[in-house]
Specification:
- With 296 residues, the chain is an alpha/beta fold.
- The chain has one domain (20-295): Vaccinia Virus protein VP39 (Rossmann fold), CATH 3.40.50.
- Helix content is 44%, strand content 15%.
- The chain has helices at 7-15, 33-43, 50-63, 79-87, 100-113, 151-164, 182-192, 198-210, 214-220, 252-264, 267-282; strands spanning 69-73, 92-97, 118-122, 136-142, 165-176, 230-233, 240-244.
- The protein has a seven-stranded mixed β-sheet, sandwiched between helices.
- It starts with 6 loop residues before the first helix and ends in a 14-residue tail after the last helix.
Length: 296
């Protein structure tokens, strides 16, 4: 069950009529060393983003089963990507990001982990000039699209996904959805402020304010209908939105590894993970990879 403090946010977002306008992030590329360091730290196993990363990793593992070549758009410091690559050592992954500093951090991180099935390129996700047509089996992305400056750039990114995917390719895209109230944005930022740096809290607030509307993400996803992509969001309040194709059963080996990662989460983050599962289940997402005995 969700924490009681979320109830006023749910009421405000469900009943509210006005919606604040989108506030694009001041910088298209996250290249500041402090920002990169704060983002990198927040995603590690004990970091504030670790529960969300594990949820998406488990979902992505289901979506990409049977895929050999996977493209990650806006991979950042590769925290999410490295976790997925470790869980799927038989697949090859390519992460692209526009930030040279992020790519440097990503390369260093996977080298430190000894992950050998990941490569990186500096590229613009609205153009993907280095990726040929119909050349990848799956496209994934987490928390990247809100960095784009406009709706036109969002549409361009989704058009590129359709271009580079092979027929029948797999898709898993997730990002924030824009809330109705700045007060709700401040609630989510303040809820985690004690556990993260001030610079990360500022970036978090900017990200929520820069998010696209659920309707905009649904419209852009129309380009991905030929692949069977569907749109899901957290119940009633699109704090997170997922665009995905059909999930497939997880091999026991991967399910066991995910279960071990869940057990390693600090109790507070395990609660965050279960809360996220709860709101996506109410939002009728087509699968919950954690609803198996090995995850209890």
């Amino acid at each position: 069950m969700p924490r009681i403090s979320l109830l006023p946010v749910l009421a405000r977002e469900i009943c509210g009529r006005r919606r604040f306008p989108r506030e694009p992030e001041p910088d298209l590329v996250m290249d500041d060393p402090e920002q990169v360091a704060a983002y990198l730290y927040a995603g590690r196993l004990g970091g504030i983003m670790s529960a969300g990363y594990l949820y998406h990793s488990a979902q992505i593992c289901q979506v990409i089963q049977g895929c050999s070549k996977i493209l990650d758009l806006g991979c950042g410091p590769a925290t999410q990507l490295a976790q997925i690559a470790q869980l799927n050592p038989g697949a090859e992954f390519l992460g692209v990001d526009l930030s040279e500093r992020m790519i440097e951090s990503a390369r260093q991180y996977v080298d430190d982990l000894g992950v050998r099935n990941v490569g990186f390129r500096i590229d613009d996700i609205t153009r993907l000039t280095l990726i040929p047509d119909a050349s990848v089996d799956a496209v994934i992305s987490t928390l990247a699209f809100h960095h784009l400056p406009s709706r036109e750039h969002l549409d361009a990114s989704f058009a590129q996904i359709a271009r580079v995917l092979k027929p029948g390719g797999a898709i898993y895209l997730s990002d924030f959805g824009r809330l109705k109230s700045h007060k709700s944005v401040r609630f989510f930022v303040d809820m985690t402020a004690a556990h993260q740096s001030a610079i990360f809290s500022l970036d978090y607030e900017r990200s929520l304010c820069a998010a696209f509307l659920l309707d905009e993400l649904q419209d852009a996803s129309g380009m991905l209908l030929p692949f069977g992509a569907r749109v899901f969001s957290t119940f009633k309040v699109p704090y997170l939105v997922v665009v995905k194709t059909r999930s497939k059963p997880l091999p026991t080996e991967i399910a066991d590894k995910i279960a071990a990662l869940r057990r390693e989460l600090p109790p507070r983050h395990r609660k965050d993970l279960d809360e996220l599962r709860f709101f996506f289940r109410l939002g009728r997402i087509d699968t919950d990879p954690f609803r198996h005995p090995q995850f209890e």
